[in-house]
């Protein structure tokens, strides 16, 4: 799909080079060393920073590659349409190159029997000045698509894409009454604080496996670069057949003009000139940190002076996401709960701190040199200092508080579905959940973009809710887990799994199931991998009951297996699912 935005030499590699040549751990003035390097070094050239401009030559090359993939002897339609989408993103508005790419996209829609999208692409092609010499092909395809739609309508079975807007299992709701002022959280949950755990969430009643206790909408989200030609940059909807491009950059694409307008107002007006360079030289965390900062600035209507005054008067100790009235909260109030998230700054070593300072310096320069924020800040050093402090702050909070969003992706080679990460997001309430390598809750991305927190084994009254940060005892050994957690999250894990050295999955003991009966774990797992919706609907309540029966016998092979089966069933019914499975019967002759 054209050139990746990721390149081999990025900001991290440049920092490593500087650190090895210029800086050592015992350097007295590390900050001065980096500052001098940034001023004196041609880092723009080293990082290959350049303006992002439309390029019709590049667009034609991408379209040619799409044509090769579309060929009747190849029929790799999904890969072809990604190329056409990127060609559309690179092409200039109103040019023949863009018009032909839209027309080519309509060909694939027609082949896949997506006639409505076919007609929409024909409209887009004409609006983009489709050449008269090729008009006959478009007219013929339009006539055929309309006839096919009419025939389908007459049979009361119009051919449309799968609709992810309706959950297979109905609407997900909290299992208990919600707080009046905190409608996204069950009122049995409370926020506590201690020297050992910091802020954490406990329950004031017994919780059962399957209980839904939090439903949170993110403060902001970031689509992963690899999905930029597949999903809408704003709402994250899979819209591969009808994406339209930002007219100012070659990266962002949207499902509708409405999403494009909302994105521009909330963050893209700032990101647009630098987003390609950001993805080129950084991984997702610095890009997400920038998104958090811009979204925060948007909540102050891009008034940095008002933001500086507000944050200067903010008493961080009094900001409590659980006691705030969310029914009356402004976007600024919500940002306060994000602003006070833990940075773990004191736990970072010199190299880690300087890496983030280095990234902050580069991002700040990109913003000041190429975006509206440079104009807003002008020569006001207090405002530019605020901008730098916000970037540095969220480069630290993002690493320890952000969460991935997932969907179910069809894998044609194995003919099954796997969970895939398509975006990252900032959730101030979910960030209050501490980690355990043997968690008692799990997060699930819902169809509407919210994240649900679901209990996966019984939790006693007064018990703490524990999430998992990606290091589970059944998948990683204790030494490996502790190293990874200390490196990223800056703490030495003392959870039950680490203290008791729980074994990996294949070493888990069997539990006594004589009172509760056995379930055929292997057979159920094989069926659920095929994304059997009806089976998931039937199994979910049964698995929930079984998990509550055996959940106290933890860790055990049957318990951990049942947790996975329950989670898989819930995801099948309530998580987004890729439409890819519907296309493969037309592809690859």
Pick out the low-confidence regions: 1-8, 157-167
Number of helices: 21
Q: What percentage of the residues does DSSP assign to strands (E)?
A: 5-15%
Strand order, biggest sheet? 3-11-10
Walk me through this protein's architecture.
It contains 21 helices and twelve strands. The chain is mostly helical and 589 residues long. The strands form five sheets. The chain has a three-stranded antiparallel β-sheet with strand order 3-11-10, covered by helices on one side. The protein has a three-stranded antiparallel β-sheet with strand order 4-8-7. A two-stranded antiparallel sheet has the order 1-2. A hairpin with a 4-residue loop joins strand 7 and strand 8. Helix 1 packs across helix 14 and helix 4 runs parallel beside helix 6. It is globular.
List keywords for this structure.
589 residues, mainly alpha, three-stranded antiparallel beta sheet, 21 helices, 12 strands, disordered N terminus
Topology, element by element:
Elements: H1 11-22, H2 30-40, H3 43-46, H4 56-70, H5 77-90, H6 96-111, H7 115-127, H8 135-154, E1 189-194, E2 198-203, E3 212-216, E4 220-223, E5 244-245, E6 253-254, H9 257-271, H10 275-281, H11 284-299, H12 304-313, H13 331-339, H14 350-370, H15 372-377, H16 381-401, E7 403-411, E8 416-426, E9 434-435, E10 441-445, E11 451-455, E12 466-467, H17 478-489, H18 496-500, H19 521-529, H20 533-550, H21 557-574
Parallel strand pairs: 9-12
Antiparallel strand pairs: 1-2, 3-11, 4-8, 5-6, 7-8, 10-11
